[in-house]
Amino acid sequence: MGSNPAAPIEVHDLTVAYRKKPVLWDIDFELPEGRLIGLVGPNGAGKSTLIKAIMGLMPLLSGYVRVYGQPLEDRRELVGYVPQRESVDWDFPVDALDVVTMGRYGRMGLFTRPSKEDYEIAMACLDKVGMADYAKRQISQLSGGQQQRVFLARALTQDASIYLMDEPFAGVDAATEKAIIELLKELKSKQKTVLVVHHDLNTAEEYFDWLMLLNMRLVKFGETRDVFTQENLRMTYGGKLHLLSEAAEKVARQ
Amino acid sequence: MSEFWDLTIRFFSLADANVRWVVAGSILLGATAGALGSFAYLQRRSLLGDALAHSALPGVGLAFLLVGEKDFMALLIGAAIAGWLGALAVNAITRHSKLKQDAALGIVLTVFFGLGVVVLTHIQKTGAGSQAGLDSFLFGQAAALGERDVILLSIVAVVLLSMVALGFRSFTLLSFDPGFARSIGLPVRVLQFVLTTMIVLAVTIGLQAVGVVLIAALLITPAAAARQWTDKLSTMVILAALFGALSGLLGGWVSFLAPRMPTGPWVVVVISVVFAVSILFAPKRGVISRLRRHLRNRGKVAQEHILKAMFKSGYPERDWSGYQHVSDIDSMWSFSFREMARGLRRLEKRGLLERSDGSYRLTEDGVVEGARVIRRHRLWELYLTRYLELPGDHVHRDADDIEHILTPEMEAQLEELLEHPEYDPHHQEIPRIGREASQ
Fold first, then answer.
1. In the list A64, A83, B73, B113, which could disulfide-bond B54, CB 3.0-4.6 Å?
2. Which of residues B126 and B47 earns the better pLDDT score?
3. Least CB-CB distance to A105: which of B166, B173, B175?
4. What range defines the domain where residue B215 resides?
5. Contact present, A95 and B231 (Cβ < 8 Å)
6. DSSP β-bridge partners for residue A177
7. Residues 119-138, chain A, touching B (beta carbon < 8 A)
8. Same domain, B261 and B319
9. Mean pLDDT, rounded, for B135-148
10. Confidence of residue B20 (pLDDT cuts 50, 70, 90)
11. A123 within 8 A of A173, measured Cβ to Cβ
12. Interface test with chain B among A57, A74, A91, A94, by most B beta carbons within 10 Å
């Protein structure tokens, strides 16, 4: 490990703790370039924590993260982050376009105003997720799926090479789910690397080229057809998840 | 009474140099606190301002002890340092213990305030001559602001307001989504430090005029009031600044009328009135506008119930030419006679009903409208039984509510999903009247 400086993201022996209680142990992997990667595991497995740790939002007990061989701080502009939708107050007095434009703030000075170009890019990204008509809508007036699409559009404005998405499919309507899938495909066709926290085992196999099975430790990581096995899922979920039997049946039918 | 008018005229005409200072100081202070309070409010850190203010009191007392006189600058520095220590203490407690922020705020606020009172009492006992003004720091005394005080206060206020304007975008993102802000490389900790320091300073310059006990109202309430009127942050900040300025000004006026009266409570009274008006009368968010929406909605439901009932009574024969008396219509639902009467009047005005001495019948449009309500009701029942697998006797209540909410688009979607059904789960026909025409 650590031999390939070109890996979009290298996580080396990462251990993360909440109030001294480790929630992720010795995580070690390199993301392959240009793939859609699903991050799957039971509740409390540390999926969001891993994303946050990679983004530098959590203190690390040990280990490091490299982006194309460099520390994250030097390559932030290459990484787009889509936080969980519930992580913010949607009653905040801003409209959809305001939120999307925030994706450009990293490129501006702290005290400069967004340029016309910034707004045009933001509008284009809203359009890409099918939300152009809602640009001036106050964000509390948007449905959950629309809010999620606004978050995705915000990340798109960064035009990053790597995207980390925290549960973009959680609680969204069918139209949004479709829009997200289209978006993921488009990102892949542009050779972007995308890591997506995902809850639904039934669709994980279909959506992602690679899967990362996580439960406080990295259980398995590899191409979906190699990783998505009954044995691996059982190791990840232990005995507690009833979805497992469903998914396991599906595996068995193959 | 004439003295009242004399003083009021003197105050608002700004003829008096002293008055000009008090007015300028009060307005700038209110505006600054209101603008900064908007961010504290949106970060849900409103109470932090209160803790900061109370924490500043021992700083005021100790600065006085050190300097030995009531030098505004020294007192401000003391207050700012103590306020900052308070903020740090809250931070340290929440980070290193299992206490939540509310407990940390409560502890810090009372400990520092208690210390402050001890120090002030000590000063009073030692009887250092010029301590007389110190107790005005508890409840504020705007009229006691001198020229030098106001100049200092104004400089700080103008600097703070400019910083709000300059850093507006960054503070917005910081308040909305700090995690994302960090992910794109914004110096979140520095920004938060700056914002907290700005709040400390806003509180500090307000101590003389409004007092430690109530200055938090000038941070929280203008922001809460402004939020009612707008969904746009820039507008909200400006409104909050205006509300703050207004209450500062009126507080200053009362203090000028009765210099012995503490200013803080009057500032709170004014801003609370502004807040009450906002909560009641603001469009969209206000209580009254919400109540009106509710009533309008109830009215719509009543009308649709009438249409439904009258449509049903003529449906089997498809003959709606007969007039029905009111008493035949209103017996089934939870609406008062007055609501029914109003509903009938509105329907008549909309051209959906015709009246002939106390009796009503549906017009052609009324028949179409009635069919639409029934259709939605029955489509929804069918949807529930088919897709939620509810038994037929469980779906009527839900459909009664949903029939008023479904949009034409949703209706079309339902039709499609259910493959243009002819009958509802109770084998009643789903009327197509008004649909054939449009198809």
1. B113
2. B47
3. B173
4. 2-282
5. yes
6. none
7. 138
8. no
9. 83
10. confident
11. no
12. A94
Structural domains in chain B (count): 2
Band of pLDDT at residue A252, cut at 50, 70 and 90: low
- Contact list, B179 vs chain A (CB under 8 Å): 52, 55, 57, 81, 83, 87
Between B437 and B63, the more confident residue is B63
Per the model's pLDDT, the better-predicted residue between B145 and A57 turns out to be A57
Evaluated on CA atoms B380, B381, B386, B389, the torsion sign reads positive
User: Residue B384: what residue type?
Assistant: L
CATH number for position B151: 1.10.3470.10
Q: Domains along chain A?
A: 9-243 (3.40.50.300)
Domain identity same for B18 and B56: yes
The pLDDT mean for chain A works out to 88
Question: Does residue B301 or residue B128 have the better pLDDT?
Answer: B301
State the complex-level ipTM.
Answer: 0.89
Q: Which residues of A touch B42 (CB under 8 A)?
A: 89, 92-93
Of residues A55, A94, A98, nearest to B183 (C-beta): A55
Of B330, B278, B327, residue with least CA distance to B306: B330
Are B300 and B268 part of one and the same domain?
no
pLDDT, averaged across chain B:
87
Q: Provide mean pLDDT across the span B407-414.
A: 84
pLDDT score recorded for residue B98: 84
Hey, is the C-beta of A85 within 8 angstroms of any chain B C-beta? no
Kindly tell me if the per-residue pLDDT of A41 is higher than 60: yes
What DSSP character marks residue A95? Answer: B
Long-range contacts of B421-426 (CB under 8 A, 24+ apart): B421/B379, B421/B382, B424/B377, B424/B378, B424/B379, B424/B381, B424/B382, B425/B381, B425/B382, B425/B385, B425/B392, B425/B395, B426/B381, B426/B392
Q: Answer with the one of B225, B260, B282 that is the final residue of a domain.
A: B282
E strand or H helix at A188, and its extent? Answer: helix A174-189
Taking contacts as CB-CB distances below 8 angstroms, the residues of chain A near B183 are 55-57, 76, 79, 81, 83
